[in-house]
Amino acid sequence: MTVPLLIDTDPGIDDALALLLALASPEVSVEAISTVAGNVPVEVATTNALRILEVARPPHRPRVARGAEAPLTRPLVTASHVHGEDGLGNIQGLLGPDRRPRYPEPQTGIEMLDGADLILEAAYRFRGELVIVALGPLTNLAIALQRDRRRLASAARVVVMGGAVAVPGNVTPGAEFNFFVDPEAAATVFEAGLPLEMVPLDVTRQAVLRRADLEARLTPPLGPVEQFLLDFTAYGFDVAEARGDGGIVLHDPLAIAVALDPSLVGFQALHVEVESEGRVARGLSLADRRPIRVESRLPANCRVALSVDAPRFLTLFLERLCRASA
Ligand code: RIB
Ligand code: CA
C-alpha cells in the first residue's frame, strides 16, 4: 500500500527538488499540493507547482490548491535572492531549440478551494493515513487548525521542515526562514497536539547537493526532467557557491525523505515552542533540552530530527531524481 501524501510548499528551488523526489518515490502517492507564500508570492509558488507537474507528468496527478498569500498577521518576507525572481532560478526566460519558451506558462488548472481546505479535505479522505509534509511557512496549517483542529489531527504524521534547535538560524541568528516568516502560525502548529516530526537546520544543513554530483548523473541526451533539473538548479548553485555553501542545501528534500524513510534521521522527543512576540527572537524554535531528568522537562510535543545519515540520504535522492528523469 502506498502512503497518501499532501505537500504544503512555497516553490522555491529546494521545494521543487523535494516535489520531484516525492513524485519519483513508489512508497508514497502525492495526492495533493497546497501552495503558500514564502520563498515567493503565492501566485508564483502556485505557477511553479503547476510547472513542476507539467514537466514531471506523474501518472497520478495531485490536486493543487492555492493557499495563503500572506502570513497570519505580518507582511510577507520572501527569498527571491536565493531562489530567483520566478522562484525557480529564473528559468522563465529560457528558450528551447525552436526559440520558443522552454517553460511556458502552465495550462493546467487548480482547485476552487483554498490550501487550508485542501489540507482538511485530504485529512478527511485519508483519515488516519495521510502524511502531511510542510515545506514552507506554516500559515496554511494554522488556518486549517483554526477551521477544524480535530480533522487535521487525524493525519498520521505531520513532517515540518523548519526551525533550528542547537544551531544558528538562517535568517536571524536564532530563526530559520519558514518559522521567521510566520512565527504565529508556527507557534500555533506546535501548540496544537499534532503528530509532529520536526526537520530543522540541525540536520538539513548536513544535506548538501554539489553541482558536480548532480551533473555527473545527468548525461546527454537529456530527457525533459533532466533538462529541467539542470535549468532550475543552475542559479541555486551559483548563489550557494558564492555564499560558500559548497552546493544547494537540501532542506525540503530531506523532509520528504523523512516521510519516505524515518530511519534516515535520529529523533528526540522534545518540547518545542516558537517565539512570536520577540523583537530579537522572532521565529526562534526553543526546545527543552535542559540537563535534568526527562520527566522534569516540559512535556514533549514533537519528535525532532537531530542526527542524519547524510550519505544514505544523498544516495537515495540522486538515485530517485536521476532515475526519474531517465
Ligand atoms: O530555511 C529553509 C526553508 O525555507 C526551506 O523550506 C526553503 O525552501 C525556504 O522555504
Ligand atoms: Ca520551502
Brief description of this entry?
By secondary structure, this protein is α/β, with parallel strands linked by helices. The protein has helices at 13-23, 42-56, 80-83, 115-125, 139-152, 177-181, 183-190, 201-204, 211-217, 224-243, 251-260, 310-324, and strands spanning 3-9, 28-35, 63-66, 131-134, 157-161, 196-199, 208-209, 248-249, 265-270, 272-274, 285-287, 302-308.
Element layout with pairings:
Blueprint: E1 3-9, H1 13-23, E2 28-35, H2 42-56, E3 63-66, H3 80-83, H4 115-125, E4 131-134, H5 139-152, E5 157-161, H6 177-181, H7 183-190, E6 196-199, H8 201-204, E7 208-209, H9 211-217, H10 224-243, E8 248-249, H11 251-260, E9 265-270, E10 272-274, E11 285-287, E12 302-308, H12 310-324
Parallel strand pairs: 1-2, 1-4, 2-3, 4-5, 5-6, 6-12
Antiparallel strand pairs: 7-8, 9-12, 10-11
Helix pairs in contact: 1-2, 1-11, 4-5, 5-7
The site of alpha-D-ribofuranose has 15 residues, from helix 1, helix 6 and helix 11.
